Amino acid sequence: MTFINKVAAVELINLSKGKIFTAEFRKKDNTTRVMNCRLGVVKDVKGTGMAYNPSVKGLKPVYDMQLKDWRMINLDTITRLSINKEKYLVR
Fold first, then answer.
1. How far apart are CA 30 and CA 16, in angstroms?
2. Could you read off the pLDDT of 34-77 as tens digits, one per residue?
3. Taking CA atoms, which of 21, 50, 72, 80 is between 20 and 30 Å from 11?
4. What's the rounded Cα separation, in Å, for the pair 64 and 77?
5. CA distance 51 to 84
C-alpha cells in the first residue's frame, strides 16, 4: 500500500477516465463509507446543473455503482483509494 496526500488522491480520481474505483471516506455524520464509483456517467443527468459548486465544499460528484445513483465523496476526509489495481492510503 502506498501513502499519498489528498491532492494526489484527487488527481488520481480525476484521471480515472471513467474506470470504476473504490474510495473510503468519513461522512458528515462521522461514519465511514466505502463506495465503488466512477466518473463520466451520463445516466439521469438532466443538463440543468447543480444549485452549488461541489468543489468549493470539498466534494466530488461520482456515480455509486451499487446504489446506481449519484453521490458525493468528501475529499477532505478521504482515507483510502483503490484505483487502477493500486491501493493507496491517503494522509
1. 27
2. 999 999 988 777 888 888 899 999 999 999 999 999 999 999 99
3. 50
4. 18
5. 32
